[in-house]
Amino acid sequence: xxxxxxxxxxxxxxxxxxxxxxxxxxxxxxxxxxxxxxxxxxxxxxxxxxxxxxxxxxxxxxxxxxxxxxxxxxxxxxxxxxxxxxxxxxxxxxxxxxxxxxxxxxxxxxxxxxxxxxxxxxxxxxxxxxxxxxxxxxxxxxxxxxxxxxxxxxxxxxxxxxxxxxxxxxxxxxxxxxxxxxxxxxxxxxxxxxxxxxxxxxxxxxxxxxxxxxxxxxxxx
Length: 221
Known about the structure:
The protein is α+β, with helices and mostly antiparallel strands. The protein has helices at 3-10, 92-101, 103-129, 132-147, 156-163, 167-179, 195-202, 208-218; strands at residues 14-18, 23-25, 33-37, 41-46, 54-59, 64-65, 78-83, 85-91, 151-152, 183-186, 189-192. A four-stranded antiparallel β-sheet has the order 1-8-3-6. Strands 2-7-4-5 form a four-stranded antiparallel β-sheet. Helix 3 (103-129) packs antiparallel against helix 8 (208-218), helix 4 crosses helix 6 (167-179) and helix 4 packs across helix 7. The protein is globular, with a radius of gyration of 18 Å.
């Protein structure tokens, strides 16, 4: 964002620790804060029509949680911390005042919403066309992008929520990815051994959303 917009935002930010399984927003409930994620990973979860949450989006250091405040609406999904980290938080009211006084900041954040729409649409495509194993590889790459190191603190239970499948399916997929020497799984931890191998295996199911993010957020109006 522009230097002026960044200055307006930075003066109001407060650093917070985000604990695993902490909810930053709940569907239908007024959120008090907007979070600019610095580290860790947050899952956007759909919970309205199913008893078990399903991850429909991922947010890390490239994004924010609380985009519904841009439109002055209540959240339409849950946002839960999947991997612990830090965020810079901003009071919802202060955030909305900033948007009223800075059209350029509003345009920039609306671009971010567009990148989330792209991510969700491509996730829907992968959910239909990719195997469970490819979907898991894709998600591991997305988490790897946001964490910045090769160790992902993910349990089998977390991965079953991420993909919306039974834990037995996760176990089978992990064993196959380990057999290819792309990952190594331990209790509560997945170590990325061969990122290039995972990328090649995912084929068209990874990389498109990432390229479009760079295109949308880097575009000069």
